[in-house]
Amino acid sequence: MSIPTPLKEQSSTGFFGHPKTLSNLFSIEMWERFSFYGMQAILAYYMYFSIAEGGLGLSQDLALSLVGAYGGAVYLSTILGAWLADRLVGSEKVLLYAAFMIMAGHIGLAALPGAAGLTVGLVLVAVGSGGLKANATALVGSLYSKEDTRRDAGFSIFYMGVNIGGLLGPLLTGFLHARWGFHIGFAAAAVGMAVGVAIYLSGRKNLPASVHVVSNPLPVNDRKKYLGYAAAFIVLVVVVFALKIVTVETLARTIAYAVIAASIIYFTLMLRSKRVTRVERKHVLAFIPLYIASAAFWALFQQQFTFIAVYSQERLDRTIFGWEMPASWVQSINPVFIIVLAGVFAALWTKLGVRQPGTPVKFSLALMVVGLAFLVFIPLESLEKTPLLALVGILFLCTLAELLLSPIGQSVATKLAPAAFGTQMIALFFLSVSLGTTLAGILAGFYTEGNEITYFLALGGTAIVLGIALLLATPALKRLMGEVR
Description:
Layout (H helix, E strand, L loop, with lengths): L6 H5 L10 H27 L11 H17 L1 H12 L1 H21 L2 H28 L9 H30 L1 H22 L19 H20 L8 H22 L5 H24 L5 H8 L1 E2 L1 E2 L2 E2 L8 H20 L6 H17 L1 H4 L5 E2 H29 L5 H23 L7 H30 L4
Parallel strand pairs: 1-4
Antiparallel strand pairs: 2-3
Helix pairs in contact: 2-3, 2-6, 2-7, 2-8, 3-6, 3-10, 3-17, 4-5, 4-6, 4-17, 5-6, 5-8, 6-17, 7-8, 7-13, 7-16, 10-17, 11-14, 11-16, 11-17, 11-18, 13-16, 14-16, 14-18, 16-17
């Protein structure tokens, strides 16, 4: 069943020249990101700070690996959220249930002590965030036809909401952590999510009817079978941890392998499905190199929560007029640039219309710019302390790259998606984010004293080479993408 096109919504221009209901989705995503980034800004410190400092006292390498694994799990769980939306209950219901799950996870982090609180909280937040992210993106896509030139601009505006939350969350949780400890910071994240749920509930009735459509319903007779699969998977997870086949030390690599396997399975299912047309199959093939480029980009960009978090704590001069800024506030620098520049990029894409660069060109530029950002670290290694403005400049380059890839990637996933795999195609994009985020935690372990320049050269240089390769492949990708840009 194909999803009906919301013609009325397409013509509505009540929110910065876009459909009115974009404001509702903008709000729920803003508050979800407030809670997510607020918690994540202090998560690594909570893990590796000593018990006397209010932390758990884990080794720094293990903490960074777990932060990467957690971030990867968030985006990996978009598969579950997308499948539930496409096969059982529709995008809107999954989004609502996921929002309540996220709120419960932050309450667990705030209220439960030690490893128990960390485990319960992160599992609930990871699964909930995965369900919310894929379906919020799908709902934004439902507001536009595939031919609407406002589509990329609409996703850029939506992305600005993400980063308003990303700006405010770390500022508040970082301040509360500095004054009253980690658990008060986690409690603030829970309150933020509660506010987002309340606002969303007040406006959900205005969403188009298409958001309640189940695009590829699961036959009733098959539901018991899939329930059995779910139970077997839960038992398998318990067993591999109980037998120490997977441990906390190997969790990040396990998630990376799981993401790669899941991605291969998803691409195979789409390419072999009888519900996918010949043109849609070409679109799926075109998405494969974009997936690889996205994973490579996020492997560098998401090091804001791993390597850069430690760098900010240990190497950055955070003194401003005699006052030392909390290290966690560095996480709010990127969102400031996003808020300033997202509207500029949205206006630029709108003004250029059909003359704007195609998606492969935008992706290749993103890889080259984020690679350049890592190369800029090299001359800073000779300094005892890195000036704050230098890191601000690096994060500015990362922001330019992000705006060329992240909202565009979400948009192109909705445009290239086969009708029977709408939300699941978006989940594939988030799987690339999952893989990159997991790699960000693994790669951060290779940054050690004495190999800093090698580290920056390897990561920055690889990203630039991949960007050039994608640029050279653009003509072939355009032929596969057809009318989709």
